[in-house]
Specification:
heterotrimer, A alpha+beta (133), B mainly alpha (138), C mainly alpha (407), A: 133 residues, alpha+beta, SH3 type barrels, 4-stranded mixed beta sheet, 3-stranded antiparallel beta sheet, flat, B: 138 residues, mainly alpha, Four Helix Bundle (Hemerythrin (Met), subunit A), 5 helices, elongated
Chain lengths: 133, 138, 407
């Protein structure tokens, strides 16, 4: 699939905290962290980016990350607080989102979404909204 | 952050300093609240007699009035103001509260004549409150 | 296309009846009229002008960028910066939602005689059901249509024959003759009630729900003026009615029961019911807006899927957000928190946090890269500066005033 990427980008402005969507343009999170690969004698390059509660918490303070991680393990729905997305998965970067060549429901980003759908929403009478309407 | 806290503290103290009322001013404010509730009970009673509000409304208004008047009675009893000023107001407040109770009972029983009597009592109390205020203002 | 644009007026009126004329406006307008007659109309006018500009900016932003505010602010300012305003916004949304639910409960109490707190959970269930089943446009259209009922205040004001010269004089600022602390407290509360952050945050998400694009920029101006103007008109009506019915009788509004008497004389048979219905509808509109605003803000902050037009199966976390918001806020009323006191508290805090939540928004309005030719001109920026100054003054003054002068 042809990739649509700009020639130049500012990391903080154009990547970090940007909305991430999947192939169907379903929203699946935001770029919570960027990981650079440091190479000897060469400029660092963006290796992958990360989504997740642990990543966000770490931006505030490592202690908060530990606390959030403990909470996540206690609740037990999400197995990881850190979802790694390789650069190669990026299909398109626009001014308002980063589109990935993935399906959201197959990624850890959608763990809670799936859990809530299967354990809560299934038990509530249907809403009859959405594409049918 | 520190400057903001300081500004806030200064503003608070300034405002509270301007606010320090004399006991006379405080008791006048309490009398204002009492007149307001007396007038409310009167208005509610009149409207019920004219069939413009349901009985349940007058009852819950009378409930609210009883609570608020109770609070005012407590506050006024703590006032350091001279007794010649305080006692008449306390009497008016308890009278207003009992008129409110009377109104509630009359409305519960569907007694229009009884309600009209209580409204009359409330009108009289309003007059007495106004007289008290004029005396207190001196 | 023209029909759709005409129908966008519905978003303006929804935001207005829910956002502008809500339980806070009812409380402060009736208090203002009862205590100071027409003297505080200037505060209402001032607040209206600011809010028209803020709402217009919010709509313009979302039409051009096709993004809602929380989404854009996290993207452009980063998570660490946005976390503070986000937490603050969530808290005021929660408290204000509690006050609005309290308003619906009080309206039902007026109509049925059943205790306010008993209505909390049923009202929560009905509000939730409304959000669960309805699409955004059906919510817009139904609350706007029902919202027209609040015109009762304007009709009543007209029927009481207010002295027009005094009313007009009230639109010019004057100083109080006695008890200045109380006067300024009510002025501040009035402004805090009108310039609520949830109004322009909700409006931007609503514009995205309605799929606005750059071609809506012109319509947006009309919607902002007419929509907010409508809400303001109702509030003027409420102040005038309170001035003519409550003030002459010496009735202050320390309790919603006192406000409930306002329309009983203008409409001899229906007055009481009209007040209850107007209050109920205004508060229902506000509750829906606030619950959605909380869900929009949370979902957008964390990048979840969101949208009232989506089936809940597609945006479970978004739906959970508004569900949790409604339930938590309803519990405040369930456990006996006084609706009027909660209203006054939430308004004071709204006023206090306005600078924090407005500054990121106003900064983005000047971003050339984002908005291009649609970024703020000098008039909008002037209003933005005035809003910030007013917001900072309100912020410093509102909490002490509440302690010192509060009714």
């Amino acid at each position: 699939m042809a990739k649509k990427l700009p020639k130049e980008m500012e990391l903080a402005r154009d990547l970090l905290d940007k909305q991430v969507v999947d192939r169907e343009e379903t929203k699946m999170g935001r770029i919570d962290g960027l990981v650079l690969e440091l190479r000897e004698g060469e400029p660092p390059r963006v290796d992958h980016f990360e989504l997740g509660s642990a990543v966000l918490a770490r931006r505030l303070h490592p202690r908060i990350e530990r606390w959030v991680d403990a909470l996540r393990r206690r609740i037990g729905v999400q197995k990881t607080g850190r979802f790694r997305v390789p650069w190669s998965a990026i299909q398109e970067i626009t001014s308002y989102h980063v589109k990935l060549d993935l399906e959201a429901s197959k990624t850890p980003a959608f763990t809670w979404e799936r859990w809530l759908r299967d354990h809560v929403i299934e038990h509530i009478p249907p809403s009859l909204k959405g594409k049918a309407n | 952050m520190r400057n903001y806290t300081l500004a806030l503290a200064l503003a608070t103290s300034a405002l509270l300093a301007c606010q320090s009322k004399s006991p006379e001013e405080e008791i006048l404010q309490h009398s204002q609240t009492v007149s307001s509730w007396t007038a409310t009970l009167r208005f509610a009673g009149e409207q019920w007699i004219a069939n413009r509000v349901p009985a349940s409304f007058v009852q819950s208004t009378a409930e609210a009035a009883r609570e608020e008047l109770g609070k005012e009675i407590q506050e006024v009893s703590k006032s350091p103001v001279r007794p010649e000023l305080r006692s008449p107001l306390q009497k008016l407040m308890t009278d207003a509260r009992s008129a409110g109770n009377g109104l509630r009972k009359a409305v519960e029983a569907g007694d229009r004549a009884g309600a009209a009597r209580e409204v009359g009592r409330l009108v009289a109390l309003q007059g007495q409150l106004a007289t008290w205020k004029r005396g207190a203002g001196q | 296309m023209k029909m759709k644009k005409a129908a966008t007026l519905a978003l303006g009126i929804l935001t207005s009846v829910g956002g502008f004329f809500d339980v806070g406006a009812i409380a402060t307008s009736s208090q203002a009229g009862a205590l100071y007659r027409y003297q505080l109309l200037w505060a209402l006018l001032f607040g209206t002008i600011l809010v028209v500009f803020l709402v217009e900016m919010s709509g313009r932003f979302s039409a051009v960028t096709r993004q809602a505010l929380p989404d854009a602010i996290r993207q452009h300012f980063g998570f660490t910066f946005w976390l503070g305003p986000f937490v603050v916004l969530t808290i005021i949304h929660f408290l204000t939602l509690g006050a609005e639910i309290g308003g619906i409960c009080f309206a039902l109490h007026l109509l049925t005689g059943i205790r306010v707190s008993a209505w909390a959970l049923p009202v929560a269930a009905l509000t939730w059901l409304f959000l669960w089943r309805a699409t955004f446009s059906s919510i817009e259209n139904s609350t706007s249509l029902l919202g027209l009922l609040t015109l009762a205040f304007v009709v009543a004001a007209w029927r009481y024959h207010p002295p027009l010269d005094q009313v007009l004089a009230g639109f010019l600022p004057t100083l109080p003759r006695q008890d200045p602390a109380r006067y300024w407290f009510i002025a501040v509360s009035l402004l805090g009630a009108i310039i609520s952050p949830y109004l322009f945050y909700f409006y931007s998400s609503g514009a995205v729900e309605d799929e606005w694009d750059e071609s809506y920029v012109g319509v947006n101006r009309g919607v902002a003026v007419i929509g907010m103007g409508f809400g303001s008109l109702i509030s003027v009506g409420a102040i005038v009615v309170a001035a003519l019915v409550l003030a002459p009788r010496g009735i202050q509004v320390d309790d919603y029961h006192q406000a409930a008497l306002m329309l009983t004389q203008a409409f001899p048979f229906w007055g009481f019911a009209l007040f209850a219905l107007s209050m109920g509808i205004a508060c229902l509109g506000a509750s829906v807006e606030l619950a959605l605003a909380m869900a929009y803000t949370t979902a957008q902050t964390f990048g979840w899927n969101w949208g009232e037009n989506l089936d809940p199966r597609e945006d479970a976390r978004f739906c959970l957000s508004y569900t949790a918001a409604i339930l938590a806020a309803a519990l405040l009323i369930q456990f006996g928190v006084d609706p009027l006191k909660l209203t006054l508290l939430s308004m004071a805090i709204n006023a206090a946090v306005l600078p924090f939540v407005a500054i990121p928004f106003l900064l983005l309005m000047n971003d050339r890269k984002l908005l291009g030719e649609h970024r703020n001109g000098w008039i909008s920026n002037l209003v933005a500066v005035v809003t910030l100054v007013a917001a900072i003054v309100l912020a410093i003054v509102s909490i002490p005033l509440m302690i010192a002068g509060g009714g």
